[in-house]
Amino acid sequence: MAKQSASPGGTRRFISGVVEGFYGRPWTMEQRTELFRREQKWGLNTYLYAPKDDYKHRMYWRDLYSPEEAEQLVALISAAKENGVDFIYAISPGLDITFSNPKEVAALKRKLDQVSGFGCRSFSLLFDDIETEMCPADKQAFSTFAHAQVAVTNEVFTHLGQPETFLFCPTDYCAAFCSPTVSLSAYLHTVGDNLLPGVDVLWTGPKVVSHHITVESIVEVSSVLKRAPVIWDNIHANDYDPQRIFLGPYKDRPSDLIPKLRGVLTNPNCEFYPNFVAIHTLATWCRSNVGAGPKDVEMTGEEDSGSDPCYSPQKALSLALTDWLEEFLSTDQPGGRRPINPAPLKKDSLDEEPMQTEGGEPVYVPGPGENPLFTAEPLTLADLQLLSELFYLPYEHGTTARTMLTELNWLKGHREAVVGGAVTPVTAEWRLRAERFDEMCVAVVTMFNRLSNVPNRRILYDLYNYICDIKSGVGMARTYVKQLGGQGNPSPRVTCDDPEPWGFRGGLSGEFQRMLPCHGNRDLFRHPPMTTVYSIRPYCPEDKAEVLRIHVETQRHGEAKPTGPAMISDGLPSGQLSPSSNCALVLEDERGVCGYALGLTDATAAAQKNQRVLLKDFPSLVTMQLLPRVTDPAPARRMIGSLLASMKTSGCRGVFCELRQSDRNMMDFFSKLGSFRTLKMAGLPVNVIAMGTSL
Ligand code: GDL
């Protein structure tokens, strides 16, 4: 077993590798063993065994392994050891464990003792994706859910003799799950304060699938957790969408993060073989900033100017694709075809002796007038580059994919004059761009054909559904553009009133998604992820006019005039009431002030003026508004979190806010915060509700 060794300086080595932590069909033992070989070759050192749908990892976590299963696990753990990979066995008891029952804790220990008997020395307890409400027995025994998890984790960790590597996955494993913010999360503070120091904590970044992970965000969470986290990176995970697979490079994690982290484990695509790029590029990233040692790969890329000085995603991708091509071209079939189809020989060039296959049978050679043999060109590096660009990353299409979408959009937008079947002449520019679009479509089809012919069938089969889908999507776009340009007849594949089943793409789920107003039916082309940088700062007198403007604009949003009598909180942005000191913040983006959060520590006088009866536990008032351009809820959550924190410091016990029911934006925001609940308050105008939270 590869022991978690200490590096010469005494610091523990950086954990790097793969977590098999996705939903769906787990990898096979053969694939895992192959993974260990690759990890060793590429310099990664860890594998976290956590397949969500493996019966005995999660649903039936109490059940011990049968002798047959035990034999397989023993072999797997020793294969990891032989390849210098630390095998971490994870268990997810959170679906139904009663934390306060000693029998449950004993069952957990018994199971982990069994796995320890298989030669495993590193362990992990995962509490992701579970109900956060404790059962009555646990509520009696523990003050919070975090206390329950930490108590059991510490006990198991101690029982196992404090292994060198022991990982804990919190239920709030990303910033988006923290209420109200990472720094103010009571759950994370309990974990940070009480988890034994030898236990490391997994963290997925700002979101479940994080677009970017910044150094600042890691500094923030580390200070709450009192330890550097191990990133469980879902950047290449695809278990949430059966139409997507991610073949782009490890990206948008600055290499400066490496010294701030305990490690990184990628939870990649469900399909094993297409993970070549995900794991290879992660390995390149991990090597890019190791101590002060010399870099093994020169990574500064001109095309990445202004970005990471140690790591270039483009270069890492090129390295990975070059190695991957070799694997595609090597057969995985016993007695399989030779990597490249030989060009069919002409009959007259044959010697007396007939050609033999590798199996010793004579090669069929067509005679004059007969069908020539099917031949396909071998896969090229350019094909793999295209493949990766078409299936790039969760928040980003590759360059060619973006170009194709932009061009199709342009061609469509500049050719609306096809009326009643009569086609008006196209401009030279339109024709040229249509031709270029067509060439790009042909390249996709060619890539598909060459891929279908690769000798390594395992990789092909893992990719097949995806490449078939994109070939068909691109094919339809191609026919459509031809039709727009007046070439060819309207294709039944595009316009037919009685389509084949492939005309109903995405099935029932696709139909549900297309009906929803904003979730589930977005596309990356029209709604690229937000890159706006927001800052929160204290309100100053110069902000008065802007805050008033936002107040007026948001009150009118969606309706001509605000209806009903004024709310108490209207007095704050309008200037009739002054916010309490240290209780006023504004949100800014690059265009200026775009939101505010204002508070009054004692709202008694203001309430009397408005004939409201305050609830004794909620004497303080807050109000918040954002301009419609702020569509990302994260900065708003940070702002209200900071406001509540300073109000608490000022001695507030409970705050309330008043919300017009027509203000869907704020109604939605406060409801989703989790901490605010609706309050029954006397004297509220019609269509106004009050929500509050204790501090
Ligand atoms: C998750 C799950 C993970 C899943 C991923 C992507 C963690 C800690 N847990 O939330 O099992 O594969 O999302 O769907 O990430």
TrEMBL record:
Keywords: Glycosidase, Hydrolase. The lineage of its organism: Eukaryota, Metazoa, Chordata, Craniata, Vertebrata. It comes from the Eukaryota. It catalyses: 3-O-(N-acetyl-beta-D-glucosaminyl)-L-seryl-[protein] + H2O = N-acetyl-D-glucosamine + L-seryl-[protein]; 3-O-(N-acetyl-beta-D-glucosaminyl)-L-threonyl-[protein] + H2O = L-threonyl-[protein] + N-acetyl-D-glucosamine. This is protein O-GlcNAcase. Residues 331-358 are annotated as: Disordered. Residues 14-290 form the GH84 domain. Its EC number is 3.2.1.169. It holds the Pfam family NAGidase. The keyword Transcription regulation does not apply. One of its GO terms (biological process) is carbohydrate derivative metabolic process. One of its GO terms (molecular function) is hexosaminidase activity. InterPro entries: Acyl_CoA_acyltransferase (IPR016181), GH (IPR017853), Glycosyl_Hydrolase_84 (IPR051822), O-GlcNAcase_cat (IPR011496).
